[in-house]
Amino acid sequence: MTENDTFAFDPEGNAASALGFSAVGVHAGFRADPERLDMALVVADEPCAAAATFTTNVFCAAPVRVSREHLNEGGAGSPAYGCARAVVVNSGIANAATGEIGLENARKTAELVGVAVGCPADEVLVASTGVIGQHLRLAPFAEGVPAALAAMATAADDLAGRTSQGLTAARAIMTTDTCPKHGSVSFSGDGIGYPGVTFTVGGMCKGAGMIMPNMATMIAVITTDVPIAAPDLSQALTAAVNKSFNKVTVDSDTSTNDTCFALASGAAAPDGPAFTPGTPAFDAFQRALDQLATTLARKMAADGEGATRLITVTVRGAATADDADAAARTVANSPLVKTAVYGHDANWGRVAAALGRSGARFNQEDVDIDILGLPVCRAGLVVDFDEEEALRRFEEPEVAIEVDLHAGEESATMWTCDFSHEYVTINGDYRS
Amino acid sequence: MTENDTFAFDPEGNAASALGFSAVGVHAGFRADPERLDMALVVADEPCAAAATFTTNVFCAAPVRVSREHLNEGGAGSPAYGCARAVVVNSGIANAATGEIGLENARKTAELVGVAVGCPADEVLVASTGVIGQHLRLAPFAEGVPAALAAMATAADDLAGRTSQGLTAARAIMTTDTCPKHGSVSFSGDGIGYPGVTFTVGGMCKGAGMIMPNMATMIAVITTDVPIAAPDLSQALTAAVNKSFNKVTVDSDTSTNDTCFALASGAAAPDGPAFTPGTPAFDAFQRALDQLATTLARKMAADGEGATRLITVTVRGAATADDADAAARTVANSPLVKTAVYGHDANWGRVAAALGRSGARFNQEDVDIDILGLPVCRAGLVVDFDEEEALRRFEEPEVAIEVDLHAGEESATMWTCDFSHEYVTINGDYRS
């Protein structure tokens, strides 16, 4: 994707940047530390088109089930879309492995928020992240939701104030994340049928480890003010997630709670017409959504537990798209590749070994590998390279591993992070 | 498998325990340290039936290609068997990613050993383990092979002396292994058609990390004195490897050099008849071979790089054998499960998450999980357990994770080890 003056990325953007949305984070009481924000509420001024993608893990948490119902998902993996007015996310407790009581608590959460906001319960989407096996308490919502709505009221007519508040929402969904992750992309309606209008796609996400017990799961909330019908929003979201969040791996686990919501208010062009697939407007929206989702996904990978480096694995020249994906994913998941990057070791042999077991079809005599822009393997054979120069390049925050299998035309990119002593400390010392 | 008095395991057994074989390790010069053994030679008194299984990695090393040729393998994954007189293994250099020169060096190694032993080059099997991308030097073989043969001559007529020498071979193939891995199983010919005869299956292996740059790959050499034709030996070996070495994962990598050789001299019953599938004799041999291979595989898993605990993952109640294998393998490969064991954390949520993304079909409401014999999850829900008792049980060297999916009748067991700070140190600090 090339940059274009009509697309502007704002690193301060968030789920309240698009017209028609408020977002606030509060300390509701899921966590003991009163300084720690632990509940985010996103509310649309009016009912919105909504869509989502969810974890494919068989062990899925109660809020995932309830949000799937509210978005009329036909079954795991099928499109999920409908109408929504609010999204509530708590951190601290995942409400996973909680059985019928968990489902009931997730439903009661939606009811409680619906009553407070003034919408039906099935227009409320819910997500949770934190420790599994513990039951979600409702009392914190009973305190936190009114507090969040009161805060929103103070900035109701002030877009800058709303955006500023939105930053607190991004902090409230963090678990082992070391920084909040948010942003927005704006683009002009000129030339795509909406002269003089500026459209915005904003959002927030959390990631880090990827899994229990702290449920360092992926949760993203994206909002936009484009006018679009829910099925078309679902199509755009699924495409964007496949290019971004689904290309991130921190420790090869997909979590029980992974969720990405998108809400579209249409408030930037309330008189429409709606963006529809195949039009320049839809293409522009897809591009903005892709850019935002990719930016958030890279932030997630770079902030993996204990990470010191973002690793970008690109495989080109694969026979099929599935081969490209399998090859890039296997390299990105290899503990040996990840520890080598941690050790600043341009160890292409570990990359080669991962490629070789990935299932992708190629001949070892054809493979080229570059690490940090240095050719380290050509035609399957070792290439002498300047180790001093490699060590210098390892000082950069991002490490590029580039592979050409010379077996076809397909390519894929995955993002991950290195594997550090700190990762073992975080995940080995969590409870004991 | 239940124990039986006619099957005796000897922890001091090795590749020289069966009648008709010598095995010796020497310092040939692949490594700089003159104290470090770095070449193992196994020689049969007469040409033997031989079989092997090899890595499925697309990047396979030159010695793997040459040994495949010598055992007439029709293609990766098809049966490999034939006739062999000797096996030579060097540690220190893997001869992987070395192109045509590497193939030539592997062939010259076989020729050199053949001339010294007095057999055709294609009756010599070769394996290498160590750094990749470096060319194998032949000079160490030119010194080491005669030295090994001279040592063997001193114990030619002395089985106890041969067996004692065999221990040096097990040490010579080590890379990051912290201990040599070997053993033998003997069984009586009484009741299976060979009254008064004792048969022995012995062997050695090396494992540890699993991969480059130190090629901590899996190499095993098994010898036996049963009379058996090469195709039948291949069948038995493939079955044993699938139950043992193929159920071990240290860091989810299969290496470029993974190799398991088996040689059968028939020397315990030189007048035959040969063991054939479907007979009690063949079943007894299979059982002994399975026991030896499983014991060696467990030693390999327990000695994974940086390991502090052996982890045994057993999945029962799977709908299919593939589901059972996928579920057990995904749990065993999960860095989060492995760091939890390192942290002595009976964290069944991470086990559940791995099961959920394994592709195995089950309902989360049906799943039971025990860790170290303690029920920690029943019907997909958390079970209160005595955390103090769990911590006490984590002091044991082996950690059992047992799952029942209640989705069918199939089961699978995998072995792995925990993921420690030391693993990151070994693999992150290897070269830089």
TrEMBL record, chains A, B:
InterPro entries in UniProt: Arg_biosynth_ArgJ, ArgJ-like_dom_sf, ArgJ_beta_C
Enzyme class: transferase
Pfam families according to UniProt: ArgJ
Entry GO CC: cytoplasm
The EC number(s) this enzyme carries: 2.3.1.35, 2.3.1.1
Subcellular locations according to the entry: Cytoplasm
Feature type site, description Involved in the stabilization of negative charge on the oxyanion by the formation of the oxyanion hole: T129, G130
UniProt GO molecular function: L-glutamate N-acetyltransferase activity; L-glutamate N-acetyltransferase activity, acting on acetyl-L-ornithine as donor
PANTHER family linked to this entry: ARGININE BIOSYNTHESIS BIFUNCTIONAL PROTEIN ARGJ, ARGININE BIOSYNTHESIS BIFUNCTIONAL PROTEIN ARGJ, MITOCHONDRIAL
Subunit note: Heterotetramer of two alpha and two beta chains.
NCBIfam families: ArgJ, PRK05388.1
Protein function: Catalyzes two activities which are involved in the cyclic version of arginine biosynthesis: the synthesis of N-acetylglutamate from glutamate and acetyl-CoA as the acetyl donor, and of ornithine by transacetylation between N(2)-acetylornithine and glutamate.
Listed name of the protein: Arginine biosynthesis bifunctional protein ArgJ
Organism: Adlercreutzia equolifaciens subsp. celatus DSM 18785
